[in-house]
Amino acid sequence: FIANHITNFGNKGRGNVSYLSSTICDEFISLMSKLVIDNITNKIKKSKYFSIVVDSTPDITKIDQLTIIIRYIEDNNYAVERFLGFLKSVGHKAEDMENALLNFFTDHSIDLKNCRGQSYDNASNMSGIYNGLQARIKRTSKQALYVPCAAHSLNLVGQNAAEATSEGTRFFYNTQMIYNFFSGSTSRWETLEKCLDKTPDSLTIKNLCKTRWSSRYDVCKSLNEGYKEILQSLEKIYLDKNQRPAICHEARSIHKKINSLEFSFL
How many CB atoms sit inside 10 A of residue 206's CB? Predict the structure, then answer.
C-alpha cells in the first residue's frame, strides 16, 4: 500500500539522481578508508610481528596530529610501510601519546605485544629512557627496540655543527634575515624575482627550516648561485625613494652584512 502510494503521489522532483552530494561522497570515502585499513590490519596480523613509526605534526589548519605508520613483512618477504591514520590533538605528553596508541591498536585488534621496533624523533617526550614514549611502549612489549629517526638525528648533527661557532650562527641568522625581509612584502619579493629571473635556473631564496636536515644546503646553494642578484635587489630597494625609511635602512643593513668578506667566504 505504501509503495503504491509513493509511486502514485510522491514528488519525484526534477533532474536525475546522482548520489554525488557531499554527504554521500564523505560516506564513500569513509567506507573505502575502512576497507583499506581492514586490509592492512589483516596483513599485519598475518605477519604477526611489526614496528611502529610515530610523529606529531600540525596540519595546515594548525591542528596537531599524531601520525601512525606500521612496518611489517609481507608474504613475498619484502618489508613495507603502511600509513594507518592520524590521531588529532592527543597532547604532547608521553603518557597521552601512549594512551592514544594503546587505544588505537585495541580498536584495530592489533596486539602491541608483537611490536618489535619503534622509531620516533629525539625529543625527550619520545626518546626519554625512563618516561619517554619509547620507554612506556617497552613496558607493554619488552622486545620493541627503539631506533631514533635517522633524518632527525642527522638534522641535529647539522644544526649543532652549524652553531658550533659564533661565525656559523651569525651566517645562518643573516641568511634567514634575507628570506624574512623579502618574503615580508609582495613588492619586495617581486623585485627579487625579477633579478633572479636572469639566473640560468631562475632560482629563488629558501627558508631555513629547523626540522629538515637538507634545508641548510638548499639555503646555501640558492644564496651562492643568486648572490649578485640578491645584492642588486637590496640595492634597488634601499635606493628607491618611494620606500619607507625603515625599509630602506633594513635593506641597506642586510646589504652591508652579506657584502662582506666573512659572509662571502662562509
Answer: 20
The set of cell numbers assigned to 232 is 642588486
Burial class (CB in 10 A: 0-12, 13-18, 19+), 18: exposed
- The grid coordinates of residue 242 equal 618611494
Helices (H) and strands (E) in the chain, counts: 12, 5
Q: 3-class DSSP state for residue 75? A: coil
Crossing angle for the helix pair 94-107 and 133-140, nearest 10 degrees? 40
User: In the numeric block, which cell numbers belong to residue 162?
Assistant: 652549524
Running DSSP on this structure, what letter comes out for residue 164?
Answer: S
Going by C-alpha positions, the residue among 151, 93, 142, 158 that lies closest to residue 119 is: 151
Residue 145 near residue 118 (C-beta atoms within 8 A): yes
Q: How many CB atoms lie within 10 A of CB 226?
A: 22
Spatial CB neighbours of 236, under 8 Å, sequence gap ≥ 6: 191, 195
> Mean of the per-residue pLDDT values for the chain?
83
The model's pTM is 0.63
Contact assessment for residue 54 and residue 118, using Cβ atoms and an 8 Å cutoff = yes
Residue 56 in contact with residue 92, Cβ under 8 Å? yes
CA distances from 37 to 11, 40, 119, 232 (A): 40, 5, 21, 54
Q: What is the DSSP letter of 49?
A: -
DSSP reduced 3-state for 51: strand
Our measurement of the distance from residue 147's CA atom to the centroid of its chain's CA atoms, rounded to an integer in Å, reads 20
Please tell me the distance from the alpha carbon of residue 204 to that of residue 192, in angstroms, as a whole number.
8
Query: What's the CA gap between 54 and 252, in Å, rounded?
Result: 45
> pLDDT, tens digit, for every residue of 95-140?
888 898 999 999 999 998 999 999 988 888 888 888 888 899 999 8
Tell me how far apart the terminal alpha carbons of the chain are, to the nearest angstrom: 87
